[in-house]
Structures are given as C-alpha cells and as structure tokens.
Amino acid sequence: xNNIVISTKAEMELTSRQDxxxxxxxxxxxxxxxxxxxxxxxxxxxxxxxxxxxxxPSEDLxxxxxxxxxxxxxxxxxxxxxxxxxxxxxxxxxxRDKPAGFMKTLLxxxxxxxxxxxxxxxxxxxxxxxxxxxxxxxxxxDGFDAREDERRHxxxxxxxxxxxxxxxxxxxxYFLDExxxxxxxxxxxxxxxxxxxxxxxxWMAGALSRNAPSQVVxxxxxxxxxxxxxxxxxxxxxxxxxxxxxxxxxxxLVVATDAACEGLNLQTLGTLINVDLPWNPARLEQRIGRxxxxxxxxxxxxxxxxxxxGTIDEKVYRVLSERLRKSSDILxxxxxxxxxxxxxxxxxxxxxxxxxxxxxxRFDPFEARYGTDLLEPDTWAAASxxxxxxxxxxxxxxxxxxxxxx
Length: 406
Prior knowledge:
Layout: H1 4-15, H2 23-26, H3 29-33, H4 39-44, E1 53-56, E2 68-69, E3 72-73, H5 77-94, H6 101-113, H7 115-125, H8 133-138, H9 148-161, H10 167-177, H11 186-189, E4 191-194, H12 198-211, E5 217-220, E6 227-230, E7 233-236, H13 239-247, E8 253-256, E9 271-274, H14 282-288, E10 301-305, H15 312-326, H16 346-354, H17 365-370, H18 389-397
Parallel strand pairs: 1-10, 4-8, 4-9, 5-8, 9-10
Antiparallel strand pairs: 2-3, 5-6, 6-7
Helix pairs in contact: 5-6, 5-9, 6-7, 7-9, 7-12, 15-16
C-alpha cells in the first residue's frame, strides 16, 4: 500500500524548484557520484593560479620585419599565382551547376595551411594521389573527375608551388630558436607545432628534423601515421609511445595534427605554434589545452599563430587576434565554426563574430552543485582521497566479510 506521506514528500521534491533549478538539475545520480573540475573553473574560483597565454605575433609584440607583414607572413609571386589559380578552379567547377563553396573552402584552407598541403590536394583532385577522407566524404565516395579547365588550374597550383621555399618553415624555426621568452628558447622549453592537415604536419616534421639532425622530432597523427624522426629518417611508432617519451622529457619537439587535440597531455612542453588557423575557433582552445594543464611548470605559456598575408586566414586572424590577446580562454566566446560565406566580406565577418563577444551561457549542473565551494557539509565532495578506476575495481572485487555464528 502506498504511504501518502512519502508520496507527497517525493512529489514535492520532484516538482519544487530551488534557486530556479529543478530536481534533476540540482540532484541526480550522476551528480551524486561525479565531481567535475575544469581548470578554468578552478582558476575562476582562485583555487589554483591562472596560467596566462601570450599570443605571438600581436600588435604589441610584432614579428620580425624580414618575415612578417604586420601579423602575417610575406608571400611570394608563386604563392600569389597559386591563389589566383584556386579562384580560377572554383569558377570552373561552378560551371557544373553544383555548389562550389566546398571546393573553394577545401583548396583555400589547404593553401593557407602550407604549400605542401595545397600541392597534395591538387594532385589528389587530378587523380595522381589518393583523396583524403574529408574530400571523399563530401563527394559521397564517388571520386573526382576533373574537367579540362579545372585540370589546367590545378596544374598551375602544383607548378607554381613545387620547389619553392615555404615561409612557414622559416617562421617556425624563428620562434623555436630566435624568439626569446626568458632565458630559454622555445625549443629549449619544449614545443608542439599544430596543423589541421596531415600533409602539412608530415612536411613540417620532416623539414625540422633534417634541419636539426641531433634532435628527435615526433609526428603525432592519425592511426598508423605517427613517427619518430632523426635527421629526416622516420621510424613508425604508436601514439602511446610518443606520449610516454614526451612525459619523460625524451622528446621536446612534437608536430601534431588535430588528432592530438584530445587525450594528449603535454604539460612538459611550454610553447605552441599553430602552423594554420582552424576555421573552427574552438579548436584553438583544444590546442592550447594540450599544454595548459595541471603540472605545467611555466607560470605563462606562449602561442604563435602563422598566417599568410593577403589570405582569408589573415582576415580571420585579424578579427580574432585582439580577442585572443585579451583572453586565453576563448571557448564560449566564439562560434563553433566560421561559415564559408562569412569570409567573403571582412565587415560581415567582424559583425558576425562581434555577436559572440558575450558568452551564451548554458546551464551546467556540475557548476551549479560544486561551483561555489569545494567542501560542502554532508556531501561526498568532502572526501580526502581520489580513487583511480583500478582502485575502485580492486575494492569492488573483494569478497564481503561474513559474520561468524557465536
């Protein structure tokens, strides 16, 4: 038989609101057994020191004039020819009566990443190399059969860029060896170099290894693509081995794709270089989060962002740079991605991004329950020990004690 008193109390508990929160927002099984602490929350509460991020180059700290035109790298006439060919290819592709936005974004982003990525993509569209997963997914696995006018523009991209020196390599080496932050170079403090494309990461890792043959360079990429390089010679390794070598400080220079954005702790490294600027701004937060972790020995960390002058990336970075300079915690203050049509007009881009100046906060049940005080009476949050999964499994595997008859 139902107990009317208990039923009434349960109904009141389930339907009442406290501080504007319903029952399952303020108290549910997950909240009872999990305390979620993010670094930004601990910094905001003053429980740990903040870890500022210094952005390079900036209006206050411009790059050297022989490499940088303002905040971006000088380009060559060959690069300009390739950029013109990208636009020509897009117009030719649009004649198929198909939306050309993806193809334009595809080539522009990869040209803005590195000359190696642009060459690799153009060759893949010509059928000379395999198309990567992103392109195949967009084409629904049908492949790409370039028409004559499209092939002409793709060939111009390859011919213009082949054999040329990419200024991004010189810029990375500048930050590693010449740009001083305190008594040590960035190479000495340890550095991770990020790109969103494997072609760029593989090219950069190989070039850095050949130019500094005494240093081990790790390439951290997708499954089966990770390497250790010495003097340009590569040895296949799995990602777990790279993690261990970095943690043990045996590797101080890592080149990574965004496959490393999650699950990789690099607090033994103190600097970061973005070879390209992802059009998903939240990835910047993920990237800097690889070194902005518990155990980071530095009181400040450094991040360099490389863009080519006269490109869409330069437009994006000019809009973002001031906000990046003022706040190293950009997640929640920017859109998850920048739509391709925003970038055609810089004024439109600035207007769209300005709408994200004030973070649009969503309800966080963990912050509501644990966001004000680490130690609350009568809650397990006051526990003095943290158990690892192995500890929990060991405790739960122990047999229950039995009472002996007396």
